[in-house]
Amino acid sequence: MLLLAALLGLGRLPGRVLLNAAMLKWQTRSETSTGLPAALAIAADLTPSDLRICWQAGRWHAEAGDWQTGSLYWEQCPEALPQLLLAGQILGEADGDWTQALNWFQAGIQIDPQNPAGYVWAGKAYYNLGRFTVSRTQFEHAVELEAENIDALIYLGRIGQEEANPEQAERWFLRALEVAPNNFEVNFSAGNFFRSIQTYPQAAYYLEKAVQIMPGHTQAQMDLGAAYFQSGDFARAEAIWLQIAERSPSYSDVWLGLAELYAESGDRESAVLHYCRVIAIGDPADAQLSIEALQALGTTCP
User: Fold this and answer.
1) Long-range CB contact pairs, 244-253, < 8 A, 24+
2) Contact by Cβ (8 Å): 293, 259
3) Count of C-beta atoms within a 10 Å radius of residue 234
4) Which of 125, 161, 177, 246 is placed for a possible disulfide with 98 were both Cys, Cβ 3.0 to 4.6 Å?
């Protein structure tokens, strides 16, 4: 540290070099971590707008629980916003810790309150935490900043579904469809919304379009088959599900769907065969449903 101080006094050590030296010492633990924030503070004073310096300085304080100081560093370099949102995204989507992820998203909003991305990610965090009212507020703010923000429009529709408000949900989904009629997620979400309110022709229309946009998407195909099945069009449902079964023979959901289709259509033999196929695959939840269905039919697997 004496050498660092001397070099600083001589003006020979720029902020980036000091940062690298401090990070190396901290990572190798040749110096206690208490020296790191002091070094970062000096580096930030030397070059306050350097993205790497302000990002690392803010990150150190944030991970130590001092979000206020961390945000002060990040405000010096709004370009750090993507890194903030990515850090939160990893915590939320990969680790499932949406509560901790919120800290990163809120810091992003603080350093750039005019960027809709921070509000969208905060909205997703609240949504995954089941806090739909505050989630809706975040997404509405994002739409105020960017009227055609697809993520915000989709989630506003989903919140309407969660809150059993189909009028609100339909309004947001239709708006999303106006903005991005050929977007997979928009058509997929709208199709499943119409399935949930038993409007099967519209459900099939949008799910068919989703499958056309992304032909290999298994869940979209499953849901399209379900829309036809629920509307009584067993032939179309069977054709779609058989395609999935051929492509993914160990996917128990599709065999269970086929079993229920055959049972509903009165083909007892095929229903039993497919329920037994589900049990053989071994998914616990699907197997239990199949056992109960066989009991209702008064039979067991051969």
Assistant:
1) 244/218, 247/218, 248/218, 250/281, 251/218, 252/278, 252/281, 252/282, 252/283, 252/286, 252/287, 253/222, 253/286
2) yes
3) 16
4) 125
- Identity of the amino acid at 169: A
Q: 67, 107 in Cβ contact below 8 A?
A: yes
Torsion of CA 139, 144, 147, 152, to 10 degrees: 0
What lies within 8 Å, CB to CB, of 189 at 6+ separation is 154, 157, 158, 173, 176
Residue 25 has pLDDT above 80, yes or no: no
pLDDT for the residue numbered 27: 43
Q: Which two structure tokens, joined as six digits, stand for 199?
A: 């409007």
pTM for the whole structure: 0.78
> Which is more confident, 193 or 46?
193
Residue 78 per-residue DSSP state: G
Helix or strand holding residue 143 (H, E): helix 132-145
Non-local (6+) Cβ contacts of 151 within 8 A are 120, 124, 142
Cα gap 181→199, rounded to integer Å: 19
DSSP string covering 244-257? HHHH-TT-HHHHHH
Here the contacts of 21-26 (C-beta below 8 Å, separation 24 or greater) are 23/56
Instruction: Spell out the alpha helix ranges (H) of the chain.
Output: 2-9, 15-28, 35-46, 51-63, 67-74, 81-89, 98-111, 116-128, 132-145, 150-162, 166-179, 184-196, 200-213, 218-230, 234-247, 252-265, 268-281, 284-297
Give the C-alpha separation, 295 to 276, whole Å. 12
Token pair recorded at residue 181: 């009629």
Q: Is the pLDDT of residue 10 over 50?
A: no
> Please, is 84 exposed, middle or buried when counting C-beta atoms within 10 Å of its C-beta (0-12, 13-18, 19+)?
buried
Token pair of 124 as six digits: 């997703």
